[in-house]
Specification:
The complex is a heterodimer.
Chain A (H helix, E strand, L loop, with lengths): L1 H4 L3 H26 L7 H14 L1 H33 L1 H14 L8 H8 L4 H24 L3 H9 L4 H39 L4 H10 L4 H23 L15
Helix pairs in contact in A: 3-11, 4-5, 4-7, 4-9, 4-10, 6-7, 7-9, 8-9, 9-10, 9-11, 10-11
Chain B lengths: L5 E11 L4 E12 L4 E5 L6 H9 L6 E6 L2 E2 L7 E4 L11 H5 L8 H14 L15 H14 L4 E5 L7 H18 L2 E6 L2 H7 L2 E5 L6 E6 L11 H14 L6
Parallel strand pairs in B: 3-8, 3-9, 6-7, 7-8
Antiparallel strand pairs in B: 1-2, 1-4, 4-5, 9-10
The chains are: A mainly alpha, B alpha/beta.
Bound molecules: adenosine-5'-triphosphate and magnesium ion (MG).
Chain lengths: 259, 251
């Protein structure tokens, strides 16, 4: 691991830039060769990007999207992690609740859109609800699985030292599950970011998803469509990099060795 | 007053699976006195771990009972600490937090004093703030031993605690354990399938048969300490155990 990361810093910077540059060049050549009037060139996208910044739409829509993701995601974590831990620890809870979770889990959050609009109308609440759904189930399942996989020896040692009840939960069950939960949280944030765009195309009048669908509908502004896509990609990348930092927490490094 | 510290009375244990049922312990009885160092010796799969877990209160026998200090064991007890073969310490806690695990009730200063004392005893000074994944296998086991000793237990149950270590480290750990035992005189029940390890450590070796397991023989080891691993008396005991277990002395 270490050997590779410190290997050649120059290569690690130059090669991705070169590959990306090559793709942009190919895109540019392809558009100019086909003389397609709708498909934008990279330059047009860059200009469109500038236009969005100038009009203040970029910041406005990004904030709108992030706002929805934040609330839907945090809500899902604050309910999903405790529920998952309870499912993993208390067999009766699992027997009662698990079947319905397994049934709801495979339903794409997007399939809930009509119900979301019915219940919450065209407001922030609809995408928040959809993001909540997309994050909640994976987090519940991962938290429950994390508890199920705790090394029995940890629990036995704790009991041997007289640790039981809530202290057992706080000192053993929770910390032993954290690495897997962190991984699930990172994946879930990625999913939430995918879902917010889809939700905003249908259920609201702002946000990056809306920007894309609106730019297309109002005059085939494909330069803005692609600019929006690039922004979504960049923000997704930043979110994932931020979540990745969680595994640096010294206390939980053990859970990510070799990962 | 000669009540045994640990009184194991006619233990039977069978594991029932789907359509299968294996008899692991079939009538094991013995007594351990306060301050004894008893080694369980037996072939792999003979039920040594099962027996120790039952004595430790982590598992229930199918029949029979275990008494410690005259009371029937119904579950684990904080005065009788189990040292597991591996990964018994918590990877999310630093060395000093792991060792202090059983000291939650004490005032912080007292706790700190005890933790420092045992960190020094097991030779981990300088590693107080390290996490287990930053330690070697032998160091991790020393943390586990220190964690057990820190609560001042009456009894230690050790299930092949050095089994995963290289032979040099094992020798050192044995020496340390004997030193600690000589100073603090706790009762120790120690599982191993290494004949030399048993003779080096024990005051009494209990040899088990293959499954279904009973006691094959009980051998006292009256050798003075430090034990000379090449003395005729040592080798005589080794030969006796090898014969009991059907192990060739020469290869
Ligand atoms: N929970 C269980 N369910 C079913 N069978 C079990 C269980 N625990 C142990 N056994 C069986 O009991 C037998 C004895 O196991 P045990 O772990 O006590 O042996 P051991 O003497 O400690 O062996 P080793 O020296 O290899 O550690 C084995 O055959 C094992 O398959
Ligand atoms: Mg065993």
């Amino acid at each position: 691991m270490r050997e590779r990361t410190t290997g050649n810093v120059l290569f690690r910077i130059v090669s991705p830039v070169a590959v990306s540059g090559l793709l942009v060049a190919l895109w540019w050549i392809a558009v100019s060769m086909t003389r397609d009037s709708i498909m934008p060139t990279p330059l047009q996208v860059a200009l469109g990007f500038g236009e969005l910044v100038q009009k203040g739409l970029l910041v406005k829509y990004t904030v709108a999207s992030l706002f929805r993701v934040t609330w839907g995601y945090l809500l899902a974590l604050s309910l999903g992690v405790p529920l998952g831990l309870a499912l993993g620890w208390f067999a009766p809870v699992s027997i009662a609740v698990n079947p319905i979770i397994q049934l709801l889990r495979p339903i794409s959050p997007i399939a809930w859109t009509p119900l979301a609009i019915l219940w919450f109308g065209v407001s922030d609440l609809s995408p928040i609800f959809l993001i909540f759904l997309s994050t909640f189930f994976p987090v519940v399942v991962a938290s429950a699985a994390a508890v199920g996989q705790i090394n029995r020896v940890y629990v036995r040692s704790a009991i041997n030292f007289g640790i039981s009840g809530y202290a057992l939960f706080r000192k053993v069950i929770l910390p032993a599950s954290v690495p897997q939960i962190l991984t699930a949280m990172r994946v879930a944030l990625g999913v939430a970011w995918l879902v917010v765009v889809a939700a905003e195309m249908i259920a609201v009048n702002s946000g990056l998803g809306f920007l894309i669908i609106d730019s297309r509908n109002a005059g085939n502004r494909y330069d803005l469509v692609v600019a929006g896509m690039v922004i979504i990609g960049l923000i997704g990348l930043v979110l994932d990099l931020a979540m990745r930092q969680l595994r640096r927490i010294k206390e939980f490094e053990w859970g990510f060795l070799g990962g | 007053m000669d009540r045994p510290k640990i009184d194991v009375r006619d233990l039977w244990k069978r594991f029932d699976g789907q359509g299968t049922s294996i008899e692991v312990l079939s009538g094991v009885s013995f007594q351990v006195h306060d301050g004894e160092f008893v080694c369980f010796l037996g072939p792999s799969g003979s039920g040594k771990t099962t027996l120790l877990q039952i004595i430790g209160g982590f598992d229930a026998p199918s029949r029979g009972e275990v008494l410690v200090d005259g009371e029937v064991v119904a579950g684990p007890h904080p005065k009788r600490i189990f040292v597991f073969q591996e990964s018994g310490i918590f990877p999310w806690l630093q060395v000093r937090q792991n060792i202090g695990l059983g000291l939650g009730e004490l005032p912080p200063l007292e706790r700190k004093r005890i933790v420092s004392h045992y960190i020094e005893m097991v030779g981990l000074s300088g590693f107080e703030a390290a996490y287990p994944h930053e330690l070697s296998g032998g160091m991790k086991q020393r943390v586990q031993v220190a964690r057990a000793l820190a609560v001042n237990p009456d009894v230690l149950y050790m299930d092949e605690p050095f089994g995963a270590l290289d032979s040099l480290t094992r020798l050192k750990m044995r020496a340390e354990l004997v030193r600690i035992w000589e100073r603090e005189r706790r009762t120790i029940l120690f599982v191993t399938h290494d004949i030399d390890e048993a003779i080096q450590l024990a005051t009494t070796v209990i040899v088990f048969t293959p499954r279904p397991t009973r006691i094959q023989t009980v051998i006292e080891v009256p050798l003075p300490r430090p034990r000379d691993l090449e003395s005729p008396a040592y080798l005589a005991i080794k030969e006796q155990i090898c014969q009991e277990m059907g192990v060739p002395l020469r290869i």
